[in-house]
């Protein structure tokens, strides 16, 4: 049961979508977001999927730096965004780095995750075509009277989204793909295991972003 819960927590938190633009929100500006979606993983001939939803808030501490929080299926997360290009130039392709750390726990199981994403934003009028690359490292564990289990996974992937600007709102559909690269784990009575595998993890999100530039 603990291992099943650990797997469920991993599935809800492993969505490879970032659901934000490469362009920062702007100094002194706030952006709120609702991110409903769906994530699916396929392994050993078995496919599983769950709906996910996250809520995010970001604040521009400078023109090139955002800080924010994300709460929901991802657990509790802290985010940053660091622009490598000039975000005040709306006609310029934007590049930014997006680190995120998160944690989620339930029923004696927990996950902790550290992500680093890179976003490339191509302006399309006032909208943005956003292409993302993501690395993710996750550790997790579960314990109880019936024994315990734990493990780690490291993943790489990418995403493509389109942030359509509709007045003060951006509507951002995004698809992401993140295969499992390397992982390992232990379980009571089963020893340890590890290796490299190709495990497709596909997600879709529809972000509603309010505020910002």
How would you describe what is shown here?
- This protein is mainly beta.
- The chain has one domain (2-211): Porin (Beta Barrel).
- The chain has one helix at 2-13; strands at 30-43, 46-60, 65-72, 75-83, 94-106, 109-124, 127-142, 149-166, 169-177, 180-187, 191-195, 201-211.
- A 10-stranded antiparallel β-barrel has the order 1-2-3-4-5-6-7-8-9-12.
- A hairpin with a 2-residue loop joins strand 6 (109-124) and strand 7 (127-142).
- The model is unreliable at 1-6 (pLDDT under 50).
List the main descriptive attributes of the protein structure presented here.
213 residues, mainly beta, 10-stranded antiparallel β-barrel, globular
The first-level CATH class name: Mainly Beta
Summarize the helix and strand pattern as letters.
Answer: HEEEEEEEEEEEE
CATH architecture classification: Beta Barrel
CATH structural fold name: Porin
* Backbone structural class: mainly beta
The number of helical segments is 1
Q: Give the overall pLDDT as a whole number.
A: 84
In brief:
This protein has 213 residues and is mainly beta.
List the helices and strands and how they pair.
Layout: H1 2-13, E1 30-43, E2 46-60, E3 65-72, E4 75-83, E5 94-106, E6 109-124, E7 127-142, E8 149-166, E9 169-177, E10 180-187, E11 191-195, E12 201-211
Antiparallel strand pairs: 1-2, 1-12, 2-3, 3-4, 4-5, 5-6, 6-7, 7-8, 8-9, 8-10, 9-12, 10-11
């Amino acid at each position: 049961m603990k291992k099943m819960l650990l797997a469920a927590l991993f599935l809800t938190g492993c969505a490879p979508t970032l659901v934000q633009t490469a362009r920062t929100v702007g100094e002194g500006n706030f952006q709120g977001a609702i991110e409903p979606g769906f994530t699916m993983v396929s392994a050993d001939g078995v496919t599983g999927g769950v709906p996910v939803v996250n809520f995010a808030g970001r604040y521009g501490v400078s023109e090139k730096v955002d800080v924010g929080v994300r709460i929901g299926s991802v657990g509790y997360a802290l985010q940053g965004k660091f622009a490598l290009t000039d975000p005040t130039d709306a006609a310029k392709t934007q590049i930014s780095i997006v680190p995120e750390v998160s944690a989620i726990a339930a029923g004696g199981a927990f996950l902790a995750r550290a992500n680093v994403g890179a976003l490339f934003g191509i302006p399309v009028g006032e909208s943005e075509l956003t292409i993302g690359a993501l690395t993710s490292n996750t550790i997790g564990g579960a314990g109880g009277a019936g024994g315990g289990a734990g493990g780690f996974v490291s993943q790489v992937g990418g995403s493509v989204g389109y942030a359509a600007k509709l007045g003060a709102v951006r509507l951002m559909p995004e698809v992401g793909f993140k295969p499992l690269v390397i992982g390992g784990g232990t379980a009571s009575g089963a020893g340890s295991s590890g290796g490299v595998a190709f495990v497709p993890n596909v997600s879709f999100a529809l972000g509603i972003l309010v505020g910002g530039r």
